[in-house]
Specification:
Blueprint (H helix, E strand, L loop, with lengths): L2 H13 L5 H5 L13 H15 L3 H14 L4 H14 L2 H11 L6 H13 L15 H17 L3 H9 L9 H13 L3 H14 L3 H14 L3 H14 L6 H11 L10 H10 L2 H7 L2 H14 L4 H13 L3 H9 L7 H14 L3 H14 L3 H13 L3 H18 L5 H15 L1 H14 L4 H14 L3 H14 L4 H13 L3 H14 L4 H13 L3 H13 L4 H13 L10
């Protein structure tokens, strides 16, 4: 690997040193001993570390701030306080400690970038002194922020010259072209700006984002028809995942409403910095990417595309409270419906099920979009209210059929799951067959249909073919490997069954059904002690009442006493 891509790997290794989430929770190397003078600071520091380790980011940020109040000269605490505050989105605390953190070897570069961004956004802070960046990525971001600071100061030609003279390893890539296009438009170099916008649109790989940027530029130039054609072309390329901002832009042009204004310097800088985020998501740890998007958010808290990306990264880090809070900061705008759905689902998963269900019903009443209806259906299904859920899934599918739109396998599949729970296989089978016709390579559909055919003894060979294909498509899915192993078992191949069921248990050790199946396979090959162990293990994993009765009978009377299986 050579060129900018290789430079990014090296940059990622440098820039992420000491900046991951684990840095916010790491041990107190180099910290003062807990003598009488520093006892309170040490206690707050340890409490902050514990809060970070248990994913309580808000408490971690607060406790690091308390520790820093006791030891304001500690670079170590300043670094941890800054990183924790930034990850939590507590810009007040981050502003307060960024200056001190900028002098620490671990967090200094990110803190310097943050200070530049905060000052550009209007914070009354002392900007960092200029010094050479230690890596190409930092050099590019600092240069971009410096250019937008020049624009903010009225020095647009100087900003244009700075952007044109960039010699970072990324200067020839689309990641810098968005910045250059915006700078050129700000400087009135409109032909050059258009070329840069178009080049970014073809090279960056963030097609929805660059379509919006180029389309808005064309709208500002009075070229509505060209902008509309761009928006329509992009939406046609993504018929089942239409970008909400592209859709909103097309609606604006169709209604001949006013073109969007050119962004203010901090807003433009946020869009310029968002473009290189693709480099981080592909090369750097997720936690650093989240910290970086927080810096972008500091520039423009109303930049919804960035906030959505940030919230999704926080979800990936299992920081669900912070993710839900980020979703809820998205006000009216193109991403608001999706953000509301995601926030409600996180609330449901957190245990506030009644409140989340009420919110989902409200969302369904406020819009005709299918996403809130599917959200409510998923919540009802997870709450064992399958009768209500099935109706909603079926309404979504019926609406698509009536509109002549392509069908999605998911609501059909989950309607089948619900119908099977309430009305049995005879009713549910056609749902799975319909889902399979729409998505012939979807592992979940292949597995569910195939497993049921195997268990019911109706079309065992066909079912085995389906689960075999599912296992090829999802070789690390424990439930699917269980189906394959159980298929071997039902066709009197217990040796092969043991092999696949052992793999299934390795991947899903807490599944009572898989442990029961492995116990039966062990019994079939004469490994009776191991069989009884697996049956006891399955009983410890909270099986459903029918499985519990079967396992109790196995342990009392042996596998020969039956039943052979459960439908």
């Amino acid at each position: 690997m050579t060129g900018p891509a290789n430079a990014m790997v090296r940059a990622g290794a440098i820039i992420c040193l000491g900046l991951s989430l684990s840095a916010c929770t790491a041990g107190p190397a180099g910290f003062m001993a807990p003598d009488a003078r520093s006892q309170s600071a040490y206690g707050a520091f340890l409490a902050a570390r514990y809060a970070g380790a248990t994913r309580d980011v808000d408490a971690s940020a607060r406790l690091y701030a308390e520790a820093l109040a006791f030891e304001p000269g500690s670079e170590l605490i300043s670094e941890r306080a800054f990183l924790a505050a930034l990850l939590a989105g507590d810009f007040g605390h981050a502003d307060a400690v960024a200056g001190a953190a900028a002098g620490d070897q671990g967090a200094s570069r990110l803190a310097r970038l943050y200070l530049q961004a905060a000052v550009l956004a209007g914070a009354r802070l002392e900007p960092p002194e200029r010094d050479p960046a230690p890596d190409p990525f930092s050099a590019m971001i600092e240069e971009m922020l410096r250019a937008w600071t020049l624009v903010d100061e009225g020095e647009r030609n100087a900003a244009r010259e700075l952007a044109a003279g960039s010699d970072t390893p990324f200067s020839v890539t689309g990641h810098l072209l968005v910045h250059r296009a915006l700078i050129l438009e700000a400087a009135g170099e409109l032909d050059a700006a258009e070329r840069a916008y178009r080049a970014a649109d073809t090279t960056l790989g963030l097609d929805d984002f660059t379509t919006v940027l180029l389309g808005e530029f064309l709208e500002r130039r009075g070229r509505r028809d060209e902008a509309a054609a761009m928006y329509e072309r992009r939406l046609a390329q993504t018929p089942r995942r239409e970008d909400p901002e592209v859709s909103q832009s097309l609606q604006r042009v169709s209604e001949r409403r006013r073109a969007p204004r050119f962004p203010r310097p901090a807003e433009a800088a946020a869009r310029a910095l968002y473009a290189p985020s693709a480099l981080l998501t592909s090369q750097a740890p997720v936690d650093y990417s989240a910290l970086y998007l927080r810096v972008v958010q500091r520039l423009d808290g109303d930049f919804q595309r960035n906030t959505m990306a940030l919230a999704q990264m926080l979800e990936e880090l299992t920081l669900n409270d912070e993710a839900a809070r980020a979703y809820r900061t998205i006000g009216d705008g193109p991403f608001s419906p999706e953000a509301s759905v995601n926030a409600a689902w996180l609330e449901f998963r957190s245990g506030a099920r009644a409140e989340a269900l009420d919110e989902a019903r409200t969302l369904v009443g406020e819009t005709r979009r299918e996403a809130p209806k599917l959200l409510l259906a998923d919540m009802l299904r997870a709450s064992d209210r399958c009768d209500e859920a099935a109706v909603l899934y079926e309404e979504v599918t019926a609406a698509r059929r009536e509109a002549g739109e392509s069908l999605d396998w998911r609501p059909i599949y989950y309607a089948g799951v619900c119908r099977q729970t309430r009305e049995g296989w005879a009713v549910a089978e056609r749902y799975y067959l319909d889902a399979l016709e729409i998505a012939p390579d979807e592992p979940r559909v292949l597995n569910h249909l195939g497993y049921n055919w195997i268990v019911l003894g109706e079309r065992v060979e066909e079912g085995f073919e389906l689960v075999s294909r599912a296992a090829q498509l999802a070789p690390d899915n424990g439930a699917i490997l269980d189906s394959l192993g159980w298929g071997h078992f039902k066709q009197n191949r217990p040796g092969e069954a043991v092999t696949w069921l052992e793999r299934a248990v390795e991947r899903s050790p807490s599944d009572p059904t898989i442990n029961w199946h492995l116990g039966d396979a062990y019994a079939a090959v004469g490994r009776d002690l191991e069989a009884r162990f697996q049956w006891r293990r399955a009983l410890e994993l909270d099986p459903d009442p029918r499985e519990q009765a079967l396992l109790d009978r196995r342990l009392e009377l042996g596998v020969a006493a039956g039943p052979d299986d459960l439908e």
